[in-house]
């Protein structure tokens, strides 16, 4: 990704995007035809990187996808019929998340710490796997949850 594309991608993530580590659920659960969820002992949850940019204009996200050369686009239908469909460009593999964050980090006007955490998370693993599960990975996940928490900043809540 060249510098011009990286600048555009960085600002897109800053305005309409998300850099995150998500809990991918448990590899030990399986929904049966009856609707029952069966848990298998000895398995636990796993973590994976997640980068997204959302918009109601699909054409815009398709251009973005062509520009950065990675990711996929999904459509989300609103529950309120008065709302437009929304679209989300997503990157989820360790290799692509690492490449994307390394390219945009110098140009990010905000969310730098989230990008650094995604880079750290993705740097220690096998590039072919899409998820991780070490103690440090879970520490990164917890810090990312705090950084991405909705509402007032923590320091503003303490002053009140």
Q: Could you give a quick summary of the protein structure above?
A:
This protein is of the alpha+beta class and 160 residues long.
The class by helix and strand makeup works out as alpha+beta
Order of helices and strands: HEEEEHEEHHHH
In CATH terms, the superfamily is Homing endonucleases
Beta-strand percent range: 15-25%
Q: What is the strand tally?
A: 6
Mean pLDDT: 83
| Basic shape | globular
Residue runs with pLDDT of under 50 for 5 or more positions = none
Counted by DSSP, the helix tally is: 6
Gyration radius, rounded: 17 Å
Just name the CATH architecture.
Answer: Roll
Instruction: Give the biggest sheet.
Output: 4 strands, antiparallel
From the N-terminal CA to the C-terminal CA, the straight-line distance is: 44 Å
CATH topology (level 3) name: Endonuclease I-creI
Would you state the CATH class? Answer: Alpha Beta
Helical proportion, percent range: 40-55%
Strand order of the largest sheet: 1-4-6-5
